Every structure is written in C-alpha cells, then in structure tokens.
C-alpha cells in the first residue's frame, strides 16, 4: 500500500528485517575494500514526533550489535570548539554505522533558540554551509551521511503533549523549550528550514509509516555502495619550487649570540602563548634531520610541562586507516589543551602519502581544500595556527645523518626509512612546493625556516611565533 | 658529590641527558619484544615543593616528544566510578611513558581533605590497598609504575609562600587548601604517610638535588627492563566440567507461552534496569551460535535506544595489544552510560587466548584474580554485573551452523573461525569450567543458561536479570 502523504510503500516487516540484516553485513564486508564506507545517521526533529521510537524500531529490525547509538544533550556552539569537535571521535570505522541524536545541527538549533539575542541569519547560514562542506569531506573520505528530520504538525504535537504521562516526560528531554508555545514551534520550523533542504523529512503522524520510511531510507543507503574515483581528469599543475627550499639561505649565528637571544626569546614566547586568549597550535614539517625536535625543545623551554602537549606523528595504525585521514588529528585536539605542538601533521597526506602512493591522485589533490577547511574551522574557533616548514640543504642533511649514526644518543634517531626518504628528495621538494602554494592561507600561514644553521633556525622559529601572536 | 640529606650523587648534566635519551630510545625499542614495558610516573607532593619544575627539567633532559604529561584537577572519589576509570585511557602503549600529575592518589588525598566529615581510616586504607593491587596488575601486564612524592618542610613552605608573586600564584593551583595552616599541612603529611611507603620521597629543599634525584630515578627505571615469566611452577588443577555445560538441560517452551512471557518480562526488565540506581553491566560468553545476539535483542526490546550501549568484542587491534588486555574494556566503560552490554568480554583472556596460546600459562592463570579485582572495583562503584554463559550442546550447534549457512540473512554470521573453534569444543568446555569455578563471585555471579531451546533460553536470561536486580 502507498500512503498518500509520503508515497511510502509499506512492505512486509519480516522481509524488511531480512533485507536490513543482509545489507548490514554487506556494509561490514566493505571494510578494507575499494567501495568501503561507514554510515553516520543524523536524526533531529520536533519533540514527540517519535525519533526515539523510529530508531528503536530500526534497532529491532537490524542486528543491534552493529548499530551504535549516540545521544548527548546539545552542546552550545562555543567559540573555542569547531562544531565537529564534540563528534569526530564517534565517527565509525569503515563497515560500521552510528545514529547520532545529538549532532551539529541540533547544537546549532539549540544555540540559535537559547542565546539571549537571536542568532544572526548570516551567521546561521554560514554555519550550515560549513556543516555541508564538512559532510562532503566525510563522504569523499568513505563516511556516508544521512540526515533525517522527524516532523510533526502543531496540532498533533499539542495532542501528544496532552496525552503524555509523568513517566514518559522523564524520557523525553524537552531541552528547555516550551512546546506549548506556538511562536516557539514556528520559530523551530522556520530555522530548521534553513538547513533541511537535503534532509529526508518524515511526517510522523502515523507511527508505522514513520518507522518504515526511516528504515527503508537506511536500507537504500546501506545498499548503495559508492564508487570512489581514483583517476583525475586534468593534468596536475606542479608549483615551482621556491628558492627558499632549493637553497636555504644560511645565516650563521655565534654560540654567544644564540644563547643570549634564546634566553630572552624563549621567555617571551612562553608568556605570549600563555596569555594569548586563543589556543595555540604549532605544526612542524620538513625533511628528516631538519631540526624539528630541537626547535620544539626551545619552544617549550620556559613553559610548565602541564601547559602543553606534543604529538609525534608516525605511520597510521589500522584502526586509523579505516577512517578519514584527518580523523587521527581531529581526535588529538583536546578541548582543554592550551598549547598543542605537532611533530609532523595532516600534511602527510600531500607529502609522504602522495609520494609513496598511499593516497590516490584524486585523494591528495582534494586534500589541500580539505585541509584548508579544517584549519579555517579551527581558526574560526579560537585557534591560532603557526605552521613551519624547516628547510635544510641536501648536503647538510647528509652530514647530520652521518653524525647521528656516529653519536650514541642520536643513532636511534636514524633509520633505513630516513635514507629511503632521502632518495625521494626532489619528490618531497615538489610536494612541499605545491603544499606551500595551496595551503598558505591568511588564517594559517606557513613559515619557511632555513635550518642549515641550527642556532639561527631555532631563533627564527621563536621570532615567527612571536610575530604571528603579534607579541614581537 | 653526595648530599648528606638524600645520598644523591650529582652527576654531570650533559652525561645525564645522554643517558636518559639513550634509555628512552631503549624503551621505545621494547615495543613488541619480550621485555616490553611502558612507564607511568605518578607525581604528587607538597605545594611549591617543585614537582612542576622537576618534570620540566626532566622534559628538557629527555626527548620531550616521547614523554607525555597529563595534568588534571583532582576528581573527587565518586561512588559511580572506580578510582582508575578517569586514568586508564592515558595508560601508554609499550615503549612509551607518561607523567601523571593528577592521579588516583592525588584524588584520594583531595577527597579525604575536602569531604565535610573526615574520611574513615579503614576506608582510606582500603582504597590504598586497591590502588596497590591495581598497580601490581599493571606491572604484570607490562606497565611499570613509579611513584614520587615531592616533599617540603613546613618552614620552607612558609618561606616560599612569602616569596610568591601574583603571576606565580596563577600557575600554582593550590586546590583550595590553606597551606598557611599548620594543622592542614600536618594532616596532609599524616595522610600521605599512609600510602607513600613504596614511593620515592624527594626532599625539595635544594632544586638541583631535587631535579637530579628525580631524573636519576627515572633513568634507573628506564634501564631496568623486566623479565616476564612464561612458565608456571605448579601443575594446573583443571576444574571438573559441570553437567550444565556437558548436557544443557533443555526445557522446551511453546511459541505462545514464549510470546506471553516475553511481553511481560521485557517490560519488567527495562523498568528494573532503568530505575535501578546503579549502572548495569551485562556480559555474554558461550559457544558460537549459542544465542547471544538473540538474547541481547530481547533485553533491549523495551528500552529507548539512547539508554544503552552494546559492545561486540572481536580480536584486539595492534594498539590494543600494546597495552594490558583489560585496557580495551576499561576504556569502553563510559561514565555516563546507564546500561552496557558486552557480546564477548574480558573472559576471552581465559577462553580463546588460553586455548589458542595468545596468552602464556602464567598470564591466563593470573587473569582470574585480575578479572575478579576488576569486577570488584566496578561493583564497589555502583555497577551491578550480570554475567551469562550460554550453554548449547554440540549437536545443536551443528544444526544451527548448517541452518546459518542455508539462510541468506544468517550466512554472514558463520565463518571458518566458527568451525575451527568447534574443533576445540572440549578445550572450550574445560576453559569454561575453570572460569566458572574461579570467577563466580558474590558481587559478579555467573548465570549458566541452557540454550538448546531458544525460547526458554531468552526467558531465562530475562528472569536472571530480574532476579539479580531483585526485581522479580
């Protein structure tokens, strides 16, 4: 049968459950395959429309062990967290799915409804655009997103409120909204229409229609396994390698000058970072032995060890590879960490992963925009981002490699990988050139530091931080 | 030179840093080796003694990228979290180390000092005993623990308080204690002496002595790589396999009776779990195809999907194998989850890991006590633990395997592993018998359910939950 309102054909529940379970195991089997995906289901809607019941019914129809459900009270959109930060750790690995009751849209709605001043439409729409872009990035990186709005008319809502008993009220958290207030109801409807264009809207008048429409939409999505293109259409325009990378200009500094400069600069840097109202994110890329570790040591010299975290990025683990490549960085950015320093970063996508072929051309060519958006979201939410490329000459690298091999406490720092990377020297220079050209944004600028002379390099790093913090 | 107070020989700082870095890389290289370990450094002490400074100096001497530092304000010892719950997620993988400023002892101290009524000595000592046992379990499972108390005399503390300026005060969080109050100082000293017997106590009168004593202790520990015994000394006393496992008594139930019973029981179970003040932890073990999934489905039938989480346990991943085997369960128990259901559990240690040889005899034979302690800690902190062994006969399993292979939506449930496990049938029965005998505690009892008849099995599971919740 077809219901007139929604054009949903009610199917046999027994068949539906068989189809859902089969599709669910089909999804599980995509793990590690070319058509892999995971599924994030965002649910929102009018109170008492029955989104809880629809998910409950779905969980009865599928194998509940492979459908995770996440529910949190809404986070107010804060100026110190990007909208995706509370959620990224729940993004499932390929082959898995999750229903998110609390999600970035419910946060936006709650914030718009609860702030003392009404949220400006332009700001609201800007958030929605950011959210859509984030979801597109998820989709490109094997995480499908399906969004469902459970709708209910004003009249039916009032009837359901009349019938609700005390125990039920306990389980329907009304998020402090007065659903008896027609003006507020209209306001919710008006606001949600600003973002639900690409949502499945379910009219929840009838419970059976609601549950079937929801489950059938999930089924359809589960069956649809994406094709991810690996070939690009146009030829890649390689950026010219800047002189600063080809032949890093070496300014030599005496030991005395260095010590004096370091003493004063490291104090200034500590103070500037500590008292800046923003969170500080400092990232390092560069050839092996360019001096990342040494620079980091000087940045933290005058900090209390409780004020900062250092993240040393190595090859991803299996559980990280089953998620978008940014996932392991999303989840390392802690809400309460004031200063975070990354020794190697997300730029691995367009450096080592590009060069070694771990990312397809489509993937790494798309990554520049993804990374820019990622950094923009952080920058919009109280992060100041200071990015370093440490530029060393090929000869100087060789000298340092050999010195490391001969020095007991440094020989652990050098491995066969380092020599192998060195054999790709020109590839890395080209990749770095493209990266610098495409990700040098006003909100997250690159600093290229010549490091053949260690002393002046460290001093320059500290000065660059001060400059970007406007504390010089 | 040797200082008279502490017998610390001050060594050349240059040599110390070389030794520390070498030892640090030595630790890194243990990963995956037989002598692997990670290192947790707990630091506590009198305010202004300088534990922050000592860690800062340590971080300058070592490679700071491989020394993580964790600092949190103290958690009050709560009745709904075991003392280790806020910390387990920070327990490092083999080859890594972390300094924990906030730790279970600082929580205990803060709680004892801040509760309106003084904490009973017996309770305090019981906590300390639990903490020591937990640390011993960590050590046995490749996580070394070193504990350092930074001490300062009353006189010196007062002098340092006199000299402290405003900016300094900002970075020394005094946790609301009045360090000008001699009585309170004495109380801290009295309390900490109840747990610092096996700690390194550093007298912090002199900063250089303090920093060197601390760093030298870490160096000594880094150099000491443990030997983990793999051979047991005595013969294992195999428990007799109970009849309930050998020949599960099958009570057949008609479809009508089942439906009626299920309807009433699933409602009762939902209500009982929802309104019980404790958190509910339900675990399932049993042969493949014994009906774990089906039983779980009926437990959650009348629950809102937001009220519970289901955890399906498969083989551990690499990052999980680099930590104690309980780690992946510790970190799944969420503070705010009311009902957690595990489809396979930590008992894998004494079942599949024992049988397949993934755990050595020493390891699995020790695991019974470790698991009992783990469950006791949870039970002491507002968890009710309901454990099920689903007992099926070998013939019935074969029937179900074949049925699964022939049913489209079930054929995904059967793999070669299942047939392989079946070939170890008697080993599993023996392992289950040992497990039931050694981990059937009053705070976390086992329920053995005969499952040859699916209907009666599901009903029995629900009844057992009600019984243990005293809601039948």
TrEMBL record, chains A, B:
<protein>
    <submittedName>
        <fullName>Phosphate--AMP phosphotransferase</fullName>
    </submittedName>
</protein>
<dbReference type="InterPro" id="IPR022488">
    <property type="entry name" value="PPK2-related"/>
</dbReference>
<dbReference type="Pfam" id="PF03976">
    <property type="entry name" value="PPK2"/>
</dbReference>
<feature type="domain" description="Polyphosphate kinase-2-related">
    <location>
        <begin position="32"/>
        <end position="223"/>
    </location>
</feature>
<keyword id="KW-0808">Transferase</keyword>
<dbReference type="GO" id="GO:0016740">
    <property type="term" value="F:transferase activity"/>
</dbReference>
<feature type="domain" description="Polyphosphate kinase-2-related">
    <location>
        <begin position="253"/>
        <end position="471"/>
    </location>
</feature>
<dbReference type="InterPro" id="IPR027417">
    <property type="entry name" value="P-loop_NTPase"/>
</dbReference>
């Amino acid at each position: 049968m077809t219901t007139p309102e929604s054009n949903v054909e009610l199917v046999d529940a027994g068949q539906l459950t068989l189809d859902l379970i089969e599709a669910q195991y089909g999804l599980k089997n995509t793990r590690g395959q070319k058509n892999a995906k995971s599924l994030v289901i965002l649910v929102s809607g009018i109170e008492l429309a029955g989104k809880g019941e629809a998910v409950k019914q779905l969980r009865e129809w599928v194998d509940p062990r492979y459908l995770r459900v996440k529910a949190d009270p809404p986070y107010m959109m804060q100026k110190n967290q990007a909208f995706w930060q509370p959620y990224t750790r729940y993004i499932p690995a390929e082959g898995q799915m999750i229903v998110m009751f609390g999600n970035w849209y419910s946060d936006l709605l709650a914030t718009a409804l609860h702030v003392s001043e009404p949220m400006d439409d332009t700001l609201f729409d800007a958030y929605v655009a950011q959210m859509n872009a984030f979801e597109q990035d998820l989709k490109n990186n094997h995480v499908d997103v399906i969004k469902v709005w459970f709708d209910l008319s004003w009249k039916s809502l009032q009837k359901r409120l009349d019938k609700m008993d005390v125990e039920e009220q306990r389980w329907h958290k009304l998020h402090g909204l007065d659903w008896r207030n027609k003006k507020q109801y209209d306001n919710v409807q008006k606001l949600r229409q600003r973002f639900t264009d690409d949502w499945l809207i379910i009219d929840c008048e009838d419970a059976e229609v609601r549950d079937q429409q929801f489950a059938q939409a999930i089924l359809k999505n589960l069956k649809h396994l994406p094709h991810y293109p690996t070939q690009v259409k146009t030829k890649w325009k390689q950026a010219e390698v800047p002189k600063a990378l080809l032949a890093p200009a070496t300014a030599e500094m005496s030991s005395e000058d260095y010590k004096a400069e370091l003493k004063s600069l490291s104090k200034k840097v500590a103070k500037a970072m500590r008292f800046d109202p923003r969170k500080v994110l400092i990232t390092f890329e560069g050839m092996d032995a360019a001096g990342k570790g040494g620079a980091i040591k000087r940045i933290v010299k005058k900090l209390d060890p409780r004020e900062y975290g250092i993240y040393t990025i190595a090859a991803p683990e299996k559980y990280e590879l089953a998620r978008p490549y940014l996932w392991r960085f999303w989840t390392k950015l802690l809400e309460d960490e004031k200063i975070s320093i990354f020794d190697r970063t997300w730029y691995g996508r367009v450096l080592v992963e590009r060069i070694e072929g771990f990312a397809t051309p489509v993937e790494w060519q798309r990554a520049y925009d993804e990374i820019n958006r990622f950094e923009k979201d952080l920058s919009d939410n109280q992060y100041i981002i200071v990015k370093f490329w440490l530029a060393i000459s090929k000869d100087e690298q060789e000298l340092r490699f050999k010195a490391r091999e001969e020095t007991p406490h440094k020989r652990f720092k050098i491995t066969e990988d380092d020599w192998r990377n060195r054999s790709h020297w020109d590839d890395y220079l080209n990749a770095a050139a493209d990266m610098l050209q495409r990700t040098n944004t006003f909100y997250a600028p690159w600093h290229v530091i010549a490091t053949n002379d260690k002393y002046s390099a460290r001093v320059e790093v500290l000065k660059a931080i001060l400059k970007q913090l406007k504390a010089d």
